[in-house]
Design goal:
Blueprint lengths: L2 H8 L11 E2 L1 E6 L10 E9 L2 E2 L5 E2 L2 E2 L1 E4 L17 H4 L10 E9 L6 H4 L11 E6 L15 E3 L2 E2 L2 E2 L1 E5 L3 E4 L2 E3 L14 H4 L2 E4 L5 H7 L1
Antiparallel strand pairs: 1-8, 2-3, 3-6, 4-5, 7-8, 7-14, 8-9, 9-13, 10-16, 11-12, 15-16
Length: about 220
């Protein structure tokens, strides 16, 4: 289905529900059957929750982690994410990210099976179980920045607005750590909770874990 046809069809869809179940964490695990481990362990995680208050009415800042998203043109078997092995255990990491893209995961949700027919009555395939609303960064370049050999990405805009999509959760491969591109003066309003939204350009941190180092260095 082309983008124009999909947009035309979507404009005539009547949403018969006003809420959906939302999830605040995606976990990547290695099971005993797919590794040398004796029991399942959490290898990676991605968190997404809105600003909230604790029992003492103290503000808990919002959290929207960044992640590497599998290209639509790559089959899941070629690059397994949430439903398969961890990318750390299943990939030849040399340039395996080629064609994939970084995004900030804003919300993870599920459309109940009782109403899925109202949303996609004509789909002839099984609808994704879980979905994520993500905001895109620019595609990864073929080579890193020549000055320091680190890959640079920026917020991807479309007609002056942040480019975003709703994608199946199984396209999310792993978490990615971004370093803000600091100028001569760091804005005072930047902190660990706001910088992802207020900074426009970032560097992909290749030193946060073994997988990132093997993939991006």
């Amino acid at each position: 289905m082309s983008g124009n046809v999909l947009r035309s069809w979507a404009s005539n869809v009547l949403i018969t529900f006003s809420s959906v179940p939302v999830f605040h964490k995606i976990k990547f695990t290695a099971s005993p059957s797919t590794s040398d481990l004796k029991e399942s362990v959490i290898l990676d995680s991605i968190q997404a929750w809105p600003e909230q208050r604790d029992v003492r009415e103290r503000i808990i800042p919002a959290c929207s982690d960044t992640a590497l998203i599998r290209s639509q043109h790559t089959t899941q078997g070629d690059s397994e994410g949430i439903k398969g092995k961890s990318c750390c255990f299943s990939q030849n990491l040399t340039n395996w990210y080629t064609g994939h893209q970084i995004a900030q995961v804003r919300v993870v949700f599920h459309i109940p099976s009782s109403v899925i027919h109202d949303v996609s009555p004509s789909l002839d395939t099984l609808s994704p179980t879980h979905l994520a609303y993500v905001e895109w960064f620019s595609p990864l370049t073929a080579t890193p920045d020549p000055k320091h050999q680190i890959y640079r990405v920026s917020r991807q805009m479309c007609n002056g607005c942040q480019s975003a999509s709703i994608i199946p959760v199984d396209r999310i491969l792993c978490s990615i750590h971004l370093i803000p591109r600091f100028g001569p003066v760091t804005p005072q309003e930047w902190n660990s909770f706001t910088v992802l939204d207020q900074c426009h350009t970032f560097y992909v941190n290749p030193f946060c874990d073994v997988c990132s180092y093997l993939a991006f260095v």
